[in-house]
Amino acid sequence: MHYVCLTTSDPFLSLRQVRIYREKATGQVYAIKKLKKLEMLLRGQVEHVKAERNLLAMVDNNCIDKLYCLFKDEEYLYLITEYLPGGDMMTLLIRKDTLTEDEASFYIGETVLAIKSIHKHNYIHRYIDVILII
């Protein structure tokens, strides 16, 4: 498959980069998480990454990106996931500064539902990406 990079975001972890790609043949948009294997080893994150991979493959929730496939090369591990536009909660708070009571209630409810779907698979994750569908 051939992809065109649309944008790059820099999550708070230097361990991974997330890029948004559009498949040329179909126009389908994907997020590609690129994780540096050496950094995973040095930081003792291998088991955490495996747990994330397993969780993304299992959970069916509109607030959690779906894992389509993964592959690796000599230096990196790549997770091809569903692209969920909207950003994360930190981006929303930076953009809006303060949420209304209705907005806060909505996002708290979405967060609870996402965490509940994770817990149904017996996972408790230390780093939760809450994707906002705006």
From TrEMBL:
Gene3D superfamilies in UniProt: Phosphorylase Kinase, domain 1, Transferase(Phosphotransferase) domain 1
Biological process annotations from GO: intracellular signal transduction
EC number(s) given by UniProt: 2.7.11.1
A molecular function GO annotation: protein serine/threonine kinase activity
EC class of the enzyme, as a word: transferase
Residues in Protein kinase domain copies: 1-134
Keywords for this protein: ATP-binding, Kinase, Nucleotide-binding, Serine/threonine-protein kinase, Transferase
InterPro entries: Kinase-like_dom_sf, Prot_kinase_dom, Ser_Thr_kinase_AGC
Reaction catalysis annotation: L-seryl-[protein] + ATP = O-phospho-L-seryl-[protein] + ADP + H(+); L-threonyl-[protein] + ATP = O-phospho-L-threonyl-[protein] + ADP + H(+)
Name this polypeptide is given: non-specific serine/threonine protein kinase
Domain of life: Eukaryota
Pfam families: Pkinase
Membrane-crossing residue ranges in chain numbering: none
Sections of the chain in a coiled coil: none
